[in-house]
Design brief:
Two copies of one chain form a homodimer. Chain A is mostly helical and 407 residues long. Chain A has a single domain (3-396), classed as Na+/H+ antiporter like fold. Helices cover 76% and strands 0% of the residues of chain A. In chain A, helix 1 (3-26) packs across helix 12 and helix 10 (219-237) packs across helix 12. The first copy, chain A, is globular. The first copy, chain A, starts with a helix and ends in an 11-residue tail after the last helix. At the A-B interface, helix 1, helix 3, helix 10 and helix 12 of A face helix 1, helix 3, helix 10 and helix 12 of B.
Chain lengths: 407, 407
């Protein structure tokens, strides 16, 4: 495609994302909804002006990696560790309930085949970190206690989702489930997340010292973007989603990051400030492209809206997708109001769900109707949960501080 | 190509550009040389790690567009208009002398065919705005009087070069030169450059007002990048190089931009400051990718270094390329020391030259040897002129202020 067309596409994405996010804000909706809608309007669903292409996809991928970097940068590792047990409970519950319910619904109610049912169930497992984080951020709750529990759970969820995808994909080809290869991927992931932040921290100290001696302009944006993208590629190499590489790098560079053994690697606090300030415009530039891309990827015009199966299956699957995640929230030892809020925050599906759907479609596991139903469910959970969460906070937001039953 | 490979390529480009620019600075060379060398090392010439691909090319194109935006942003339109006559003399001289000398050398010394000779001559016409601006900036002379004369001339040069390319390309196919179509392109360009800054100024005022009422984060980076990229696409639509669209947008948003008729469109001076600060990291991120890309595009390993023709032709063509531009500088009514500096600053060839070479090769006008010679000349003028200019400034830099013969 010619360069000037691509430049116009990028410009159109940025302008429409901004216009729609502004519109969403005027109507009291989270801004991210506006960006998703911009993608739906520009994409094959409505105007068909932009088909998702490799270039936009790359910019979108950089956008979500950088967003997760920023999330990591503002995460307090101490709080994340404190929330660890509850995050883990939430992640496991929010992974297993939708998986089990989705499987039962597909296999035993709609009578689909084993592998199709497993793939559909898999689609429901992983929360969209990007959408969830943006919703909480739009509500000003990202650094709240529930925000930290949800963030940790969404990270674990994404890892489990990708792991499940690898296992199911192998199963669909070889018809056997290999515990060994699943264990290997899991081992890689654990090693990555145990070492990546330390490596990133060491590199950031090197960048800091280099900047001090070099005195040349532009070290922070170039070196940090290179660092973040390298860690994304590294995450991919161990089988984890790329965006989690960005998150690991962000955690490492956060103000509150501590190394094991109390290793002293001090950098000037101004450097942290500098990183935040210089990375912000870059992150703000790339992030909307990701959310617009999610909208572009949902081709709602390809759905056969006259099919009874599509309606019945997608509606019941959406119910299961929502109930499953809220059930995951209910088992977290927290204030009951918070349990529900946490479960609701886990509802949006996105990146990993779309990857499941796409692999299902390309490999022939999903036929047109199943694919359509799955895409509708992803669109539904992503587009509608921001409204509920906002409404829920409006009505019950003041009851979160009430005494908690156990902790 | 897979996403994680591309992410690694971008990271490698950013890191090597930084490392080599640092190395260049240590050796007293301009930083841009380091970035070009990083491209030569990463590219097919040496390591062959990165082949220029569409994605890197797009990021590079965005980089040069944003760089020209920044150049425009810091340009004083008043000074540019003041330098106008001298810029025009320099542009025309620096366009015609290399063209005439290149043609004579190719046609009458090396006995090449008419169309081949015309294309070779065309390759020598346009100064690389990007390289020239960076060299002057690295030397801290970008806002100097000679910097403004050179900038204006390089812009005119680029327009003339692209116009010539259109005419010659048509000639190579139809064997006729159409004054009408050349005039049409020229008319479009004139209309574009007369109206684009006004339009961009109006849009920037709209963005400013929107930002004031919207109070949402990230308006400046997204809206301004969209604005700059749109103007680049608009420039392309009228037949001008895309980077000049970025320049037009930058001029419009500069602090000193004035509208004809004294039209009052005041924005808060803080807004200008804000634009500068928020765009800087984005520009610093993308710009090195462009210069690395220029290095990647020069495949020095494809050159048949044992060919006598390649050596003889490329060396004499390089001499002609340098003499032609310096001759262009000598006819500018300025202090004699400055005339030479101005001519030297015009020597680097890049973007437009490479486009000429590429079109010549793809259309079969250039055979392998001619193409190699032309690429060597571009590499030579680009890689070596920064050293001379720096050396020249070191020896004669203090004589620029001496009384000028006429003005």
């Amino acid at each position: 495609m010619e360069t000037h067309i691509l430049l116009l596409q990028i410009a159109a994405i940025l302008v429409l994302a901004r216009a729609f996010s502004e519109l969403a804000a005027r109507f009291g909706a989270p801004r991210v909804i506006g960006e998703l809608c911009a993608g739906i309007v520009l994409g094959p669903s409505i105007l068909g002006l932009i088909a998702p292409n490799d270039l936009i996809r790359l910019l979108a991928e950089i956008g979500i990696i950088l967003l997760l970097f920023e999330v990591g940068l503002h995460t307090d590792l101490g709080h994340l560790v404190d929330a660890g047990k509850r995050s883990l409970v939430l992640a496991l519950g929010g992974f297993m309930f939708p998986f089990a319910l989705g499987y039962l619904l597909s296999r035993h109610v709609f009578d689909l085949s084993l592998i199709v049912s497993l793939f559909i169930a898999g689609t429901l497992t992983a929360t969209s970190i990007g959408v969830t984080v943006r919703i909480l951020d739009d509500l000003g709750r990202q650094s709240s206690p529930e925000g930290e529990i949800v963030l940790g759970a969404a990270v674990v969820d994404d890892l489990l989702g990708v792991l499940l995808l690898a296992v199911l994909y192998e199963f669909s080809i070889t018809n056997t489930i290999s515990i060994a290869s699943a264990g290997k991927i899991m081992g890689f992931m654990v090693v990555f997340f145990a070492t990546a932040p330390i490596l990133a921290k060491l590199l950031s100290v090197a960048i800091y010292r280099f900047q001090v001696v070099s005195n040349s302009p532009g070290v922070v944006p170039t070196a940090l973007v290179a660092l973040v993208l390298s860690f994304a590629a590294l995450a991919h190499a161990v089988g984890a989603p790329e965006l989690l590489g960005g998150f690991a790098a962000g955690i490492a560079l956060s103000r509150r990051f501590f190394l094991p053994l109390g290793l002293a690697l001090r950098v000037d606090p101004e450097f942290h400030e500098d990183i935040s300030n210089q990375m912000r415009p870059i992150i703000q530039l790339f992030t909307p492209i990701f959310f617009v891309m999610v909208g572009l990827s949902l081709d709602l015009s390809a759905v056969d809206w006259s099919s009874v199966f599509v309606w019945a299956f997608s509606l019941s699957l959406a119910a299961v997708a929502i109930i499953g995640k809220i059930a995951g929230g209910l088992i977290v030892p927290e204030n009951p109001y918070m349990r529900i809020a946490i479960g609701m925050a886990m509802v949006p599906r996105g990146e990993v769900g779309l990857i499941f759907a796409e692999i299902g479609r390309v490999s022939g596991i999903f036929d047109e109707n199943v694919f359509a139903a799955v895409v509708i469910v992803i669109a539904y959970t992503t587009l509608f949960s921001p409204f509920w969460i906002r409404a829920y906070y409006r009505h019950f937001g003041d009851r979160f501080a009430e005494p908690q039953p156990e902790r």
